[in-house]
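Hi R.,

Here's the chain you asked about this morning:
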Amino acid sequence: MQPAPLASLALASLVLLTGSGCRELAIRSAPKKEALAAQDELSRQAEAAFWTALHQGRYQDIPAVTRLLTAAYLQNPNDPKLAAHLGFIHIWKITERQRVPELDPTVVNHIILARKYFEDAVALAPEDARYLGFLGDAQISEGKIFNDQRMQTRGYFTLKQAIRAWPQFNYFTAGYPMSILPADSKRFAEALEWQWKTLETCAHQPVDRQNPCLGCETRTGPDRACWNSTIAPFNFEGFFLNMGDMLVKQGDWKTALTIYGMAKKDKNYSAWPYAYLLEDRIRNAQANVRHFNQDPTVFSAAKPVQQSIDPGKVVLFNTGFGCMACHQER
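And the predicted structure, written out as C-alpha cells:
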C-alpha cells in the first residue's frame, strides 16, 4: 500500500478542523479565567454577611446572604473565594433543608448551583484542595438526586483526587455525604474506612481502633484540618459525632461509644451548641442501630424530603444541622 499523499493528509486535517476538531481547537484556544481577588466594598460586605450567618447558625439569612454574594461575584467573577462561598451557601441551604416546615421541591436547584460555583472556584484556584472536595460532594449529590450515574461516578473520582491532594481534610469531606447510603453498601463501607484514614493521617501512624488518638493539636500546615479552627470552631466534635453515627449505622455501636467519647476530649466541648445531640446518642446508641438504618430517603418523586424528622434518630447529615455541627460558634 502506498503512503497517503501529503495533499490527502492535509485535506483530512482540514476536514477535522472544520468539524469537531475546529470546535475543540477554538474552545481550547479561548483564554481561561484568571484569578483576581475582589477589593471592593460590596465584596467585603458579602463576605462579612456570609461568615456571620454561618458562625451564628442563621439559616434564615441564607436568601439575603446569597443575594449579596451573587451581586459581589457578578461584579468580581474572577474571585475564587466568592465563588466558593456561593457554592457553600447553596450546599448549606439544601443540606439543612429539614429546618423548613414545608419544603419547596425547587430546593434541589441549590445543588446544581453549588456544583457550578465550586467548578468556578476550582478553575480559578486549582491549588485549593478544599474546593475540589466540595465540588466532588456537589457532583455526587446532584447525581444521586437526579439518578445520574455518570455524575455520581464523576463526583466519586473528583473526591478521590481531592483526597490525594489533602487527605486530612478530604477523607472526611468525601465520606460525610455517603453516610446516608445503605449501611451494607460498598460505598458506605469505604466512606467509613475514610473516617479511620482521617485519624491515621492526622496521627501519622496506625491507630488503635478501640482507643484512637490524634496526637498534638496544631493550627498550621495540612494537619490543621484535624482540629478546630476559626472557620470550623467545632470541627473536632462534629467529626466524631458523624463517625460515631456511621459506626452505629453499621451496627458497631460499642465502638461508636468510644468514638463519641473522643468528641468530649476537646477543651471547648462544653460550649458546643450540639453537645446535646452527642449526649443523646451515647444514651441511645444500641437503639439507634435500627433508627439510623431507617433514615428517610433524601428525595422522592412525591415529595423532596420527609418532614418532622427527629434529629436523635437519623445520622448527622440528615438532622438539619449537617453544616452547623462543625461551623456554628454558639
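The two ends are 79 Å apart (CA to CA).

Let me know if you need anything else.
M.
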